[in-house]
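Need a sequence for this fold. Nothing fancy.
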């Protein structure tokens, strides 16, 4: 846990006092289980080197894991939190007590640590200033890099916009040329169709196809043929009967006054 890379913060605090607002710089180095604080007001400096045992004891008093206790301190000393009351009070013999308030589950708590007067205030102050200068240089480099990246993106955006306008113009020209060719082809086809229509109209009416015979007439003819066949059959039967009757009555002869129907039927025998 102690080998993990530490985090660094530096906060400018304005502490209200009886006469004026006191400004101090608080530099924090945060490890996984302990932390170090370096504080200066420009003239004097103080340090707070919290050990693992001390941090664990403070965290247990608030029923917090050590990691949560460390994260809480990093949050409030990395950026001044609105609503929190910060203090940097005299603790006697040149020492100071750094504090700030926060709420937990509706209860207002105060985070306090005693800071010892630095044995070398000049060096401690210089270290804080060096850290601030390095951080400022890093931020300046990052701003320059971001600005350059923004400029490159802006130039690329302008190039893309120019290319897009060019492609849009070429597209319109291409569509206009295609439509012009299409209209020419369409007019040519229309002209050929009119010529074919005029040619057909000059050739005269088309030859009419033979009309198919009505099915009703065909049916009537068939029925008539069938009826004639039945008459012929009945006529043949009557002729046979007449021949039989004439053979029986050879002596009588045939009379013209006798109706034809009498010769066709058989005579009824008298009882």
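Here you go.
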């Amino acid at each position: 846990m102690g080998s993990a890379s530490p985090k660094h913060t530096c906060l400018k605090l304005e502490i209200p006092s009886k006469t004026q607002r006191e400004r101090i710089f608080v530099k924090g180095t945060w490890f996984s289980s302990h932390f170090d604080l370096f504080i200066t007001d420009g003239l004097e400096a103080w340090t707070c080197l919290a050990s693992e045992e001390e941090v664990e004891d403070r965290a247990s008093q608030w029923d917090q894991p050590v990691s949560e206790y460390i994260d809480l301190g990093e949050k409030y000393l990395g950026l001044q939190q609105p609503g929190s009351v910060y203090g940097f009070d005299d603790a006697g013999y040149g020492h100071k007590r750094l504090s700030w308030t926060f709420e937990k589950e509706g209860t207002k708590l105060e985070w306090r640590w005693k800071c010892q007067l630095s044995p070398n205030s000049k060096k401690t102050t210089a270290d804080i200033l060096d850290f601030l200068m390095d951080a400022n240089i890093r931020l300046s480099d990052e701003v320059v890099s971001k600005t350059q990246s923004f400029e490159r993106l802006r130039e690329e955006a302008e190039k893309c916009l120019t290319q897009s306008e060019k492609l849009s113009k070429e597209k319109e020209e291409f569509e206009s040329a295609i439509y012009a060719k299409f209209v020419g082809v369409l007019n040519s086809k229309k002209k050929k169709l009119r010529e074919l229509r005029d040619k057909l109209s000059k050739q005269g009416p088309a030859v009419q196809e033979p009309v198919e015979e009505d099915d009703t007439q065909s049916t009537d003819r068939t029925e008539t043929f069938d009826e004639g066949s039945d008459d012929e059959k009945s006529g043949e039967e009557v002729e046979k009967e007449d021949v039989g009757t004439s053979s029986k009555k050879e002596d009588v002869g045939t009379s013209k006054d006798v109706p034809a129907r009498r010769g066709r039927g058989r005579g009824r025998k008298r009882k």
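For context: Confidence is low (pLDDT under 50) at residues 221-229, 236-271.
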